[in-house]
Amino acid sequence: MANLFIFGLGYTASRIAGAMREHGWHVDATGSDGNIDFADATAVESALQKASHVLSSVPPDRSSGLDPVLDTYSSRIGQSWLGYLSSTGVYGDAGGAWVDESSPIGTGRRSARSEADEEWLKMGARVFRLPGIYGPGRSALDRVRDGKAHRIDMPGQVFSRIHVDDIVPGVVAAMTGDAPPGAYNLGDDLPASHNAVTEEACRLLGTAPPPLQTMDEAGLSDMARGFYAENRRVANAKAKRVLGWEPRYPTYREGLAALAAGLTVRE
Predict the structure, then answer these.
(1) pTM of the predicted structure, to 2 decimals
(2) Looking at the DSSP assignment, which residues form a beta bridge with residue 54?
(3) What is the CATH number of the domain that holds 106?
């Protein structure tokens, strides 16, 4: 039986863990839903010794900028298969142009993430660069239903996104196949504006879209303002070619429709 150790069993990684268990793998993990305390070095090292594969979904610490996993356990990680869930934020602003895995990183607002990304690559990891993640309980549908949706008047601003259930098969394919180390963008096929996604969610829910506003009128946080400061389209051709991966939800329309159908069933 193959053994996977996950640092940080969160929204995405918990789904990866579930998929690997379905494949017959044993999974240990840190995190609120994991079975091992990150601070328990003895337990972590024992689990790492048994693990054939290691995946980290832990972002850099906001205060120090350090990657907690690498800062604490890098000398104990010697597995031949390493994986890291990174962010397409490492590409920074591209003025709406396409970026791929050969594009430079480290020029955007997420310098700590870029440094962690590069460190994992140096260790021989498969680094999965993820755009805006949405899925059950975390989508434009939820923001509209909670009265928290907004539309910002910024013509030409686009970004990429990925349904959480499309991340899983990409990572699983890399984990169970012979994908070489390196970076892989996992994003859908249709970069689009935040406004377009919000408008589609409103259409599905039969609700009028919120009015167009400036960022000041919307009262956006500094973090949200930083999001709007970057504009790019993320190419996914490498993941398709090397991993044999295809998104089940190639655009936000299919993804939101599936989520809306799930909401209807549950209600």
Answers:
(1) 0.95
(2) 5, 82
(3) 3.40.50.720
